[in-house]
Every structure is written in C-alpha cells, then in structure tokens.
Amino acid sequence: MRLLEISADGFRNLQQVRLVFGSPLTLLFGDNAQGKTSVLEAIYLLGTSKSFRDHRIEHLVSIDRDAASVAGEVRSGAVAHRLECALTPKEKRFRLDGREAGPSDYLSALPVVVLSAEDRSLVKGEPRHRRNFLDTAGVLRRPSYLKEVLEFGRCRAQRAALLRDPQSSRKERAAWTDPYAALGEKIQRERARLTETLNGLLDGLARDASAKERVHLVYRPSGGEDLRAALERASEAERRAGTNLVGPQRDRVEILLDGRALEAYGSAGQARRVLWMLKLSLVLLRSGGDPEPPLFLVDDAEAELDQRRIEELMRLTERRAQVVLTAVREWCGWNGELDRRRVAGGRVA
Length: 349
Known about the structure:
alpha/beta, five-stranded antiparallel beta sheet, 14 strands
C-alpha cells in the first residue's frame, strides 16, 4: 500500500492542509463547499499534472493569494519520491525529487484515477471525451505515451497552418504529412490495443460484479485501417478546407451496453453504472502492472454511488486500489477498515 503525505497552501479554498493517506479506504466528509473536492483535486494535480475540474490555472489559486503550492511525499516499499507543484495565476511548475522532470518520469510516481460529476460527459458528451478516456488509459499503462500524443499535437498544428496558407507548396505540406501520418498511425494502433485490453477488463468486472449488462467499447479510427491512404484521398478536400480532416483527432469511440449505443439508448441510471465500470477498468489496467495499487478518488460518493455500489466498489478494488471518497455524511456504507477525516473551512481534522 502506498503512503502519501500531501500538503497544500493557497490552493482553491484549502488552508495549509497536511494529510497522510495510508489506509485502503479514506473518507473525507463534511458540508458542501468546505474543501473536500479540493483535496482530491490537489492529489490528482500531483499525480497527473492537471485538474479534473477546471483547466484554467487562475482558478486553482485562492482569490486572496498570488501563488499556491501543492507537494507530496510518496513511499512505495523502499522507494520514495517528492512531488512539487508551484502555481501562479499564469503558470504551473512541477518538480520531481527536487528537479524538473519529463512527463514519463513525473507521471510514473503517483498513479491516480478519479470518478467525479465532471466525468458524466464521457458517456453522453462530445466524442473528444471518449478519445481522452483512451489516451488517459494509455498514459496510465505507459506514461511515455503522453510524449507521443503531445508530439502529434505539435505536428498537427504545423500541418494545419500550412493547409491554411494559400502560399504553401505541395512539397511543404508533404514534408509535414509524413510525420503526421507516422505519429497518427502510432496513436491509432495504441488506441486499438487499449480498447481490446479495456474490453477484457470490463468483461471481467461484469463477471465479478454479477452484472447482467455487458459494457463494450468500439474504436473507429479516422480514415479506417490505412491512415496514409485516407490522407491521400483527402488531400484536396483538406487544402480547400484549410484544416486536417483525417487523423486521431477525429477518431470515434462508441460505448455499447448489451450491443446498443449507450449515448442514444441508455438511461441516466445506466449511464452512471457504465461510468463506474469504465473508471474501475482504468484502476485495474494500472494495478495489473504495478506492485502497489493506484489511488482511486471518488468525489461526492453519495451522489455517484448508492450503498450497494460502495460495498461492491470496495470488494472489487480490494488490494487493487487505495480509495479516497468524499461525502457529506460520516457514514459511507462500508464496515471494513476506514480512515475518517472531517473537512471544514478549508482545513482537515
């Protein structure tokens, strides 16, 4: 079990918080707007370098402060790491063990998965949310995957700029089309492999939970099986449109429930259950390749999960994840080992 000691100052509404997490289940409870979600957000920020609530940096710093800081000591067996994040309204700066680190090294130190109200767009929102889900899975399994995604993003932007420029030559566009296709194919192969792996994990979860409904992901790469051929076919249309019309940024991921599209036919209750299963599949994806389980953060557990789901979550994640829940009430429907912490006024008792 990982031991995480985290401190935060000037972050959201937190007031010099210092916490140690070492229990299989920790419950943060208290009234609304007291800082429970901010604690989860601080943990997620340290583990992933981003917020699960808001991508605007200025909102992460307390309104009466010019800067904020979040730091954590992570111990796993004999290995220890220190993670640090310094924030101003304009930038975030991260350090690992006192030095700036690349994404692969930094993201390996504290694997974390979150389930929150913001995730509901995954099951019924825009296609980009489902693409991001696959990419999140890719980074959890192999942190260096983030570097490939970022490289493709830069290449995509440069190619789009050339497509918008009426003075650009065919040779110039071709010079960026080759790396665009190579990186795009790499990402699409990885997404296809991730879809297959996640479907296996979802099948296993359905069996373990005795679920009657089967959740299945279908990955449809933009351009079909041959991205280079699709780019060739679309070359004139892209030049006229002045943008990239084919590539991973246009991939589609469908979520099927018993063979039917959840987005079109699923009820609100089914959408919540499927979201819960998808997030659990991410936990299992990471826990399968790590001797220490990842952190699984569940925000507003009473709204997202009923008592049966909480009990089922703890059974399915036993020895597979460290769970941190937030709730209004002190009781969360679990009779096993539990560390309870009250949050009030931006402080944790």
